[in-house]
Write a structure and sequence with these properties.
Radius of gyration: 19 Å
Strand content: 35-45%
Structural class: alpha+beta
Strand order of the largest sheet: 4-3-2-6-7-9
Number of strands: 10
Order of helices and strands: HEEEHHHEEEEEEE
Number of helices: 4
Helix content: 10-25%
């Protein structure tokens, strides 16, 4: 009888533990970047939030904005600046995800299913965001809702443009997001 109770307890615990299991899924993000002429452009960030809008991790942000440019130019990738709580991050935390604005062409980033502290997140719904400052206050925000750790394949990407950018809309194009389990 004790063996049966022990087996039942172990099964129940493993089911309970499975509900909180950490995921090993990953997400590949790619897009084309075309440098724009003029002030107030060429800044972008790629980050992850959970489905409830809580910040998880920044994968990349252009150095100008991340290292203080957001104070001189508050409209620069402002959604990311707010969500990441950039003003409260240390220089070493910022250095972990920044670099100079890249060369034109294909950009690739991978989210390994971890948060900003390097801990695996639970399987579930997450949103990949890509925000770009097109010119002045004009910007684009791409979003892709995905189910990490439970589904593989291409994820639908939606674009939302803010402001009156015209030709600058070509700064970030051909955005693709693919989830893997």
């Amino acid at each position: 009888m004790k063996k049966i109770a022990l087996v039942c307890a172990l099964c129940a615990f493993s089911g309970f533990a499975g509900a909180f299991a950490q995921t090993r899924g990953s997400v590949d993000i790619s897009f084309s970047y075309a440098r724009q002429q003029g002030p107030g452009s060429n800044q972008f960030a790629v980050w992850v939030e959970d489905a409830e809008g809580r910040y998880i991790k920044t994968l990349y942000a252009t150095r100008f904005t991340a290292r203080g440019g957001w104070e001189r130019r508050p409209e620069s990738i402002r959604q990311w600046v707010k969500k990441s709580a950039l003003s409260s991050l240390s220089a070493s935390e910022v250095d972990a995800f920044t670099s100079a604005t890249p060369r034109e062409g294909a950009q690739r980033f991978r989210w390994d299913g971890t948060d900003s502290r390097g801990k695996a997140v639970p399987a579930g719904n997450y949103v990949i965001y890509i925000e770009g400052s097109l010119r002045g206050e004009s910007r684009v925000v791409y979003s892709a809702l995905l189910r990490l750790g439970e589904a593989s394949g291409d994820v639908e990407v939606k674009a939302q443009y803010h402001g009156s950018a015209g030709s600058e809309r070509g700064m970030l194009t051909d955005v693709k997001v693919k989830a893997s389990t």
